[in-house]
Structures are given as structure tokens and as C-alpha cells.
Amino acid sequence: MAEVLHTEILENCSGSINKSCFANVRLPLQIMQTSAEVCAESKTGHFSIGSSDAPEIAKWIEETFIKRYDTMIITKYYSSRLWARISGQIYLEMADLEWAAQRLKDLRSRVEEGHWKRV
Fold this sequence. Notes:
By secondary structure, the chain is α+β, with helices and mostly antiparallel strands. It is built from three helices and six strands.
């Protein structure tokens, strides 16, 4: 998923955090440490979210996943970034994870377009 999103997986210094069926994948949204709302240039240009808006955006992503895709992906703001908590259970296939990564990319575009503010 991190490869599809062009991001990384949250890891600790000993490299042991991902020795389970869970992983935290960083979402491709830049967080600015200001109280400003969203600063947008374009979907392909510079786009950033104010840190005060990040928890609300994480909640919107979670709720939208449930309502729109019938899927639960926990999304949290941690360490100045947005992270999606992914479970790689035995019954899931790579196609399922690729599908989820594509939906996260779709929601990233919707965040850029300001959909999270319309709730």
C-alpha cells in the first residue's frame, strides 16, 4: 500500500513494530504546523493541511470509508502525519490491499477538493 501511495510504513528504531498483521501506512497529505486551514495550489502542485484540521480530516476519511465503501480503515493523526491502520488478515488478498490503496488515493483527491469541509 505504501508503494501505491508513494509513502512509507510507520516503524520504530528496532524495526519490530510491523512484525504482526497490522501496519500503519502514511497517507500522502502534507501537514503544516500552523493554525491555517488548507493551502491548496492544485491536485498535482503544492497542497497542505493545517495541523488543526488534520484530526477532522482523519475522522472524515474513516467515516467516508464506512459510508461509501463499506470498509473500515482506522485513520489517525500522529507525529505530524496522517496514518491509515491496515490489517493484513489471512483471508485478504493483495488485490484487496491494492483496492484499499486506490480508495485512499481517491479520498486524498477529495480532501484536496475540500469535501471534508462539507460534512
